[in-house]
C-alpha cells in the first residue's frame, strides 16, 4: 500500500499568500472525510472487524495515514482557479478587494462545492465578517494577528519548575 505524499500547506505558507481583503468568509465542511467515496480497490484496506462481523467503509474514514493529503488534494482540485481562496483540509477562507468581488468569489466556491457534492456545516461558517479566526489567528483588514485567547492561555501557563514539567509543556 502506498501512502499519498501530497504536501499539506503549512500555516506559514497559507499566511504568506494571504490576499488583502476588507471582509472575510470562513467555511467549514460537515464530516469532511466522510464526504469522499473510497475507490473500490482501496476498500479492503479499510475493512474492520466488529462484534457483528466485518465492516467495509464506502467513505474515507478518519485516521488513515493518507487521509489529510488525499482530502487536501481533492479540495484544492475542486477550488482551483478561484482567486482569493485558501483551503486547509476542511477549512476554507476567502476574501475580496470589494464586497462585490467577495460575493462573486463566494458564489464560485459554493457552486464548486455543490457541483462536487461537498456539504458545509452552516453552524461553523462565517460570512462577510470584518474579522475571522482561522488556524489559531485572527485575520482582518489590518492583517494577521494572534488570537487573543491563545495569547492569554500562553501568558497564564505556570512556569515549569523542573525537567518533567518542562517536557510536559513542550
UniProtKB/TrEMBL annotation:
InterPro entries assigned to the protein according to its UniProt record, in alphabetical order: DNA/RNA_pol_sf (IPR043502), Retrovirus_Pol_polyprotein (IPR050951), Rev_trsase/Diguanyl_cyclase (IPR043128), RT_dom (IPR000477)
Location of the Reverse transcriptase domain: 1-139
UniProt keyword terms in alphabetical order: Coiled coil
Alphabetical list of Pfam families matching this protein: RVT_1 (PF00078)
Residue ranges the record marks as coiled coil: 96-123
Xref: CDD domains: RT_LTR
Record has Glycoprotein as a keyword: no
Gene3D superfamilies per the UniProt record, alphabetical: 3.30.70.270
Protein name, per record: Reverse transcriptase domain-containing protein
Species: Elysia crispata
Upper taxonomic lineage: Eukaryota, Metazoa, Spiralia, Lophotrochozoa, Mollusca
Amino acid at each position: 500500500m502506498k501512502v499519498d505524499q501530497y504536501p499539506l500547506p503549512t500555516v506559514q505558507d497559507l499566511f504568506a499568500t494571504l490576499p488583502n481583503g476588507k471582509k472575510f468568509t470562513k467555511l467549514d465542511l460537515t464530516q469532511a472525510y466522510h464526504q469522499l467515496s473510497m475507490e473500490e480497490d482501496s476498500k479492503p484496506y479499510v475493512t474492520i472487524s466488529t462484534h457483528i462481523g466485518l465492516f467495509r467503509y464506502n467513505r474515507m474514514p478518519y485516521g488513515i495515514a493518507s487521509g489529510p493529503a488525499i482530502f487536501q488534494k481533492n479540495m484544492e482540485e475542486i477550488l482551483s482557479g478561484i482567486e482569493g481562496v485558501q483551503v486547509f483540509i476542511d477549512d476554507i477562507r476567502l476574501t475580496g478587494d470589494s464586497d462585490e468581488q467577495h460575493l462573486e468569489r463566494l458564489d464560485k466556491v459554493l457552486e464548486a462545492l455543490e457541483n462536487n457534492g461537498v456539504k458545509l456545516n452552516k453552524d461553523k461558517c462565517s460570512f462577510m465578517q470584518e474579522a475571522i479566526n482561522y488556524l489559531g489567528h485572527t485575520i482582518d483588514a489590518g492583517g494577521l494577528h494572534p488570537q487573543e485567547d491563545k495569547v492569554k492561555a500562553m501568558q497564564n501557563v505556570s512556569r515549569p519548575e523542573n525537567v518533567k514539567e518542562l517536557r510536559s509543556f513542550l
